[in-house]
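TICKET: design request
STATUS: open
ATTACHED STRUCTURE:
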């Protein structure tokens, strides 16, 4: 029943979410319908057509019409009608002027269509048309003077600039995209909204100024969507444009700027917080005007703007906020986009994993060698008798008179047996008969051996493909693993840090599993005294009940200020390594290669590869082998499969004596368990105090055979142990010593230093001295020291209220 209730609950949530999305989609579709049908262009054109600045200038109609001509030419008739109607609402002369300037630009645009598509050419053309038409209209009404010419020049310049701004706004409105709006685009949208609201100048609703209500509503919407910075910027821009219409709007500039600032700061309170910011700004600016009546009407205007904000559909606000950097909607949008990309990538990886798995199954499902079918021996007898008995003069005697005896003898020979009686005294071609049977048996053995090798190769390829499929499947699972919501833990960490006087701007938890803790902290200061290591990491260790250390940290890039630090679980053991080389005959190039690096899932790999011979060729072989092995281990491929894959590659491309020995040690940093995989390598030694343990195996190097022998040995290391791995050059240089292994044990046991680099250097030096100062082969020693991982700073106990 519980499962049924859970299923019903999930189904109800899914249906509710689906209905909510459909409702939001319908609201957005209304806006899209208004825009696609040209109604927006008609209404916006009407407002811009009646917008006037400095009493006489109308610089908004032509830029809007020109922007529509460039961006959406099919909507130009609606725009022309709206602009002309809006200007005609002011009077016959403004309507005639607007129609004239729009028609002249339309004709000029058609003549210069090849060049007018460029925004700067279009801006220059709009400025020129404005200057010409305004000059003619002014000259027809009054004499021209230098002051009038200056005004005409200013209107023409304003027309060109507004066209560039409107083009920027149309780019934002017409192109659906995921990227965030830049500050320039937000300002351009604010200018467009202010110009449209400017068309309401002079309209009154009782004693309320409608343009004031519209301007405050736009600022409220900007503050709610984008915060204090964009809200205050929009307030200043809109206020300045309104001041161009009338100097009576100067107090409105302060009100809009303060309303945008306070509303953005109180954005966390939602619409109520933004409205409170507007009311506070209205009270502050109203008190400075010392006009109680005007303050009363200003509060009414703010109340109407607030009512319009509450009536605005939430989906419209979220649609705008999704493109504003820093907003919650923008963060959610980016997270959803990242999730979609991650899911798509994981799906592709899973498909590739399935392909490799299918290929692995196809190689694994090869049929075993077919058993000899019934009558195979008769077929072989027939082939042999065709070569021997058909031309023999005793054929009738053997196969007609004594068929049973002859058939029994031939069957024994066909099954690699020997007839019981002395059949050679009866058969005159017994030697040839034996040779023919032996030849057929050899051909059959070769065929069976080839089939066996093919099956072994198929099984090996199947294991390789299966290993790749497992790695890719694991990678896909990691991609699909959702970042868990740990809001409560994040808030707790922030509060605990605040209690100790450390402020954290943001805490992001990626994983809280034991041994896999992973979280990021954003600090509002640049670390100068090791606060992350000395204070924050010990506090996190106490909060999470697990030793946590700083994984990486760094200062934020300009213009930001602060420190970003990543904290992860500390491993139980710490590994240090040292490497010492001595090239053949004191040369500079050694044929040995080695590596000692941490790899995936808290493991440490140390390996030595010795290429056959000396010099550059051996160095190239060993580097290739160790490089392939290291990359496979880092990719998550199991050690045995990685070494077998390298062996397969070397065997396939072998030319001459291209062989390599491999000595690999894998150390688990959580419990210090070590696995040794030796392929043609000399013994390794584990030093624990004065006791020495030898790890040895006997097998051939890589590259000899496709099917290789590999010994896997295990050893439990402890804190303080030292592991010594070496190439065969050290042991070969000790030929004059009766028991090289015993000598090596004594040298290691007598080491006093615990530094792995010093220990490796001392061993190589001792081996060279024991060889009489000559280096007859490349020598390499890798020393590894295992210790407990002890944090530098103890955990800080949390303060508890004891009452």
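STATUS: resolved
RESOLUTION: sequence designed for all positions
ATTACHED SEQUENCE:
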């Amino acid at each position: 029943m519980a499962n049924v209730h859970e299923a019903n609950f999930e189904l109800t949530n899914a249906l509710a979410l689906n209905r909510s999305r459909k409702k939001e989609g319908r609201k957005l579709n209304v806006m899209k319908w208004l825009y696609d049908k040209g109604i927006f262009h008609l209404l916006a054109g009407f407002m811009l057509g009646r917008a006037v600045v400095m009493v006489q200038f109308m610089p908004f109609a032509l830029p809007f019409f020109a922007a529509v001509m460039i961006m959406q030419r099919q909507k130009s008739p609606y725009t022309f009608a709206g602009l002309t109607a809006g200007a005609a609402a002011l009077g016959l002369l403004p309507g005639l002027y607007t129609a004239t300037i729009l028609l002249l630009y339309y004709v000029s645009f058609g003549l210069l269509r090849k060049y007018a598509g460029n925004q700067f050419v279009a801006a220059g053309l709009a400025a020129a048309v404005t200057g010409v038409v305004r000059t003619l209209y002014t000259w027809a009404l009054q004499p021209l003077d230098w002051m009038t010419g200056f005004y005409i020049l200013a209107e023409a310049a304003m027309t060109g600039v507004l066209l560039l701004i409107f083009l920027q706004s149309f780019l934002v409105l017409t192109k659906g995209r995921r990227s965030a709006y830049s500050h320039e685009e937000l300002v351009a949208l604010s200018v467009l909204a202010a110009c449209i609201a400017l068309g309401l100048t002079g309209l009154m609703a009782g004693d309320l100024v409608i343009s004031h209500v519209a301007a405050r509503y736009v600022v409220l919407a900007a503050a709610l969507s984008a915060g204090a910075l964009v809200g205050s910027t929009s307030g200043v821009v809109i206020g300045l444009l309104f001041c161009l219409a009338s100097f009576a709007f100067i107090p409105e500039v302060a009100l809009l700027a303060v309303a945008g600032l306070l509303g953005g700061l109180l954005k966390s309170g939602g619409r109520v917080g933004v409205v409170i910011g507007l009311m506070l700004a209205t009270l502050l600016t109203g008190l400075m005007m010392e006009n109680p009546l005007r303050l009363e009407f200003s509060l009414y205007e703010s109340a109407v703007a607030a009512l319009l904000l509450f009536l605005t559909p939430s989906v419209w606000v979220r649609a705008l906020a999704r493109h504003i950097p820093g907003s919650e909607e923008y963060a959610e949008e980016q997270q959803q986009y990242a999730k979609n990309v991650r899911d798509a990538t994981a799906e592709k990886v899973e498909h590739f994993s399935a392909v490799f798995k299918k290929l692995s199954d196809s190689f694994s499902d090869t049929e075993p060698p077919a058993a000899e079918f019934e009558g195979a021996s008769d077929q072989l007898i027939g082939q042999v008798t065709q070569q021997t008995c058909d031309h023999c003069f005793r054929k009738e005697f053997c196969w007609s008179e004594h068929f049973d005896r002859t058939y029994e003898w031939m069957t024994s020979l066909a099954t690699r047996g020997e007839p019981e009686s002395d059949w050679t005294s009866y058969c005159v071609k017994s030697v040839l008969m034996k040779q023919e049977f032996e030849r057929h048996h050899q051909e059959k053995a070769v065929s069976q051996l080839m089939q066996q090798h093919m099956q072994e190769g198929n099984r090996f390829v199947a294991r390789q493909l299966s290993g790749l499929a497992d790695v890719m499947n694991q990678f896909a699972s990691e991609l699909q693993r959702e970042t868990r919501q740990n809001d409560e833990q994040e808030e707790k960490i922030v509060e605990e840090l605040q209690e100790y006087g450390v402020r954290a701007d943001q805490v992001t938890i990626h994983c809280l599993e034991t041994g896999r803790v992973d979280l990021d902290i954003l600090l509002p200061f640049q670390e100068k005294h090791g606060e992350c290591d000395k204070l924050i990491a010990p506090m996190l260790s106490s909060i999470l009940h697990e030793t946590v250390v700083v994984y990486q940290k760094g200062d934020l890039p300009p213009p930001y200020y602060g420190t970003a630090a990543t904290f992860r679980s500390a491993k139980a053991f710490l590994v240090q390594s040292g490497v010492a080389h001595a090239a053949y005959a004191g040369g500079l190039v050694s044929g040995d290669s080695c590596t000692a690096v941490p790899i995936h899932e808290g493991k440490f790999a140390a390996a030595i590869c010795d290429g056959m011979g000396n010099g550059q060729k051996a160095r190239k072989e060993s580097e290739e082998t160790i490089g392939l092995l290291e990359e496979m281990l880092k990719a998550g491929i199991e050690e045995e499969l990685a070494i077998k894959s390298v062996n397969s590659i070397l065997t396939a491309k072998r030319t001459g004596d291209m062989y390599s020995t491999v000595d690999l040690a894998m150390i688990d940093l959580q419990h210090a368990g070590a696995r040794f995989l030796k392929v043609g390598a000399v013994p390794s030694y584990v030093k624990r105090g004065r006791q020495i343990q030898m790890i040895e195996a006997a097998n051939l190097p890589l590259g000899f055979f496709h099917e290789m022998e590999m010994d896997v040995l295990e050893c439990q290391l402890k804190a303080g142990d030292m592991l010594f791995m070496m190439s065969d050059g050290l042991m070969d240089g000790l030929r004059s010593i009766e028991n090289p292994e015993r000598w090596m044990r004594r040298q290691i046991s007598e080491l006093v230093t615990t530094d792995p680099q010093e220990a490796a250097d001392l061993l190589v030096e001792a081996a060279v001295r024991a060889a009489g100062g000559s280096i007859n082969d490349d020598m390499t020693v890798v020393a590894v020291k295992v210790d407990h991982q002890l944090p530098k700073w103890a955990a800080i106990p949390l303060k508890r209220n004891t009452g």
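CLOSING REMARK: Residues 337-368+379-481 form one domain. The chain is about 60% helix and 15% strand.
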